[in-house]
């Protein structure tokens, strides 16, 4: 992963957990060739009994320089769906949603 290609390392994205795409606002340019174009590569999805992990790489379109590794996790924990994201480019985030029609924690403020 390359800290020289991004404005901020692992920006706090609060509850925004994405399993595809790139946070282009945080991308400066490829440190190797100066390009401002990225692509996703080597996307994989691993599923266990109660967890799904999506992993892919952000790579420069022209020179294939590795900018960042992206990981998105989804799991069910009791009455909640739990999402987590970790990526040098896209940032860090986590979110929790009730699987019940009415959230037992009450309304979200």
TrEMBL record:
Q: Name one GO molecular function term.
A: zinc ion binding
Name of a matching Pfam family: Churchill
Q: Which InterPro entries does this one have?
A: Churchill_sf, Transcrpt_activator_Churchill
Q: Kindly state which keywords UniProt assigns to this record, in alphabetical order.
A: Activator, Developmental protein, Metal-binding, Transcription, Transcription regulation, Zinc
Q: Which residues form a coiled coil?
A: none
Instruction: Please give the biological process terms from Gene Ontology that the record holds.
Output: fibroblast growth factor receptor signaling pathway; positive regulation of DNA-templated transcription
Q: Please state which protein family the record places this protein in.
A: Belongs to the Churchill family.
Q: What is this protein called?
A: Protein Churchill
Organism field:
Candidula unifasciata
